Amino acid sequence: MSAQKFFLHAMAAAMALGSGQVALAQSYPAAPVKIIVPFAAGGGVDQVARMLASHWQTAFKGNFIVENRPGASTFIAAEAVARAVPDGTTLLLTTQSTFVINPLLFKEMPYKASDFVPVGRISVVPSFFTVAAGSPYKSLAELVAGAKEHPGSLSYASAGAGTAGHLGFELLNHRVGTKMIHAPYKSYAASMPDVVSGRVTSIMADLPVINNLLQAGKVRLLAASTAQRSEFMPDVPSVNEALGIKDFSVANWFAVYAPKGTPADVADRLSKEIEQFTRSPEGAAKLKAIGHTPAASSPQGLAELERAESANWAPLIKSLNLKMD
After folding, report:
1. d(Cα 154, Cα 160) in Å, to the nearest integer?
2. Is 307 part of any domain?
3. Three-state secondary structure along the chain?
4. Residue-wise pLDDT tens for the chain (325 aa)?
5. Same domain, 58 and 159
6. Whole-angstrom distance, CA of residue 123 vs CA of residue 125
7. Domain containing residue 173
8. d(C-alpha 141, C-alpha 243), whole Å
9. Which of 243, 264, 289 is a domain's end point?
10. Which of 112, 129, 280 is nearest to 219 (CA)?
11. Do 64 and 110 belong together in one domain?
12. Using CB atoms within 10 A of its CB, is residue 106 exposed (0-12), middle (13-18) or buried (19+)?
């Protein structure tokens, strides 16, 4: 074959591939779409997935189904999506634990970040440093002072090693020079009775976990874990305000990913509809009703966020010698 004929054949193949991808994007979805969630039904991630599924269903005039595959530190769900056909009919909706924290904790995983393409972030969930209503500590500054005065005697609960509640408190220990002791539980719900009773000194948890106890007057909020005050509790200072420090910020975020090879046009359309949902009055209200701050990002923005968060957490996790293998 002459060079000219080879070039023409290559151009034709490229144009056919491109037109096929455009056609796929325009007809999307051609089949029901599974949104796989690595957490149990009824939880925060599941609730967001069902909100987004409803929006996408209307926007794309297709069938979007939430499928819960909890367990194994999100491995089960992530592996299923990594192995799926990359046509946009299988998506993963998860938290930063899957692509930021897990790679720092586990030497071996059944998936790699390179097995996926980012679609977009949906929302951010602020947490609050919290104590029992009867606690002697009325502010975060008092809690820190107590921890310094009695090193190793104050404790904090979490839903397990490597969770946001664990790493957030260890970041506080690191920043202010305290040694509050980690008390891991199987879940946040399991830990709250001991927080309320004062058996455990404190916890860093989000509003869906603590709100009912807060309304009942059983816990007290000391500070928001985010860089600024939370719109949900504007009277509660941020850690930065409470302690006079800079750049302390810990928050869970929720995002969507697709298998590597998913057409960019499909990922972009899904991402734009995430933004549409979070910016609409109805969508924003739904998210805020469960303690989420709408925070949509592009696929590129999500990839940049992952890199920044990984760089932020890696030194702390290494200093703790925290490994889950």
Report:
1. 18
2. yes
3. CCHHHHHHHHHHHHHHHHHHHHHHHHHCCCCCEEEEECCCCCCHHHHHHHHHHHHHHHHHCCCEEEEECCCHHHHHHHHHHHCCCCCCCEEEEEECHHHHHHHHHCCCCCCCHHHEEEEEEEEEEEEEEEEECCCCCCCHHHHHHHHHHCCCCCEEEECCCCCHHHHHHHHHHHHHCCCCEEEECCCHHHHHHHHHHCCCCEEEEEHHHHHHHHHCCCEEEEEECCCCCCCCCCCCCEHHHHHCCCCCCCEEEEEEEEECCCCHHHHHHHHHHHHHHHHCHHHHHHHHHCCCEECCCCHHHHHHHHHHHHHHHHHHHHHCCCCCC
4. 554 554 445 444 445 444 444 444 568 999 999 999 998 888 889 999 999 999 999 999 999 999 999 988 899 999 999 999 999 999 999 999 999 999 999 999 999 999 999 999 999 999 999 999 999 999 999 999 999 999 999 999 998 888 889 999 999 999 999 999 999 998 888 999 999 999 999 999 998 889 999 999 999 999 999 999 999 999 999 999 999 999 899 999 999 999 999 999 999 999 999 999 999 999 999 999 999 999 999 999 999 999 999 999 999 999 888 888 6
5. no
6. 7
7. 126-243
8. 6
9. 243
10. 129
11. yes
12. middle
- What is the reported pTM? 0.84
Residue 55: CATH number of its domain: 3.40.190.150
Is 279 within a domain?
Answer: yes
Does residue 114 sit in the same domain as residue 154?
Answer: no
137 within a domain of the structure (yes/no): yes
Distance of CA 56 to the CA centre of its chain: 20
* Domain limit, last residue, from 243, 270, 295: 243
Counted residue by residue, the chain has a size of: 325
Total domains in the fold of the chain? 2
Give the pair of three-digit tokens for residue 162.
């490597």
Residue 136 has which token pair? 């002697």
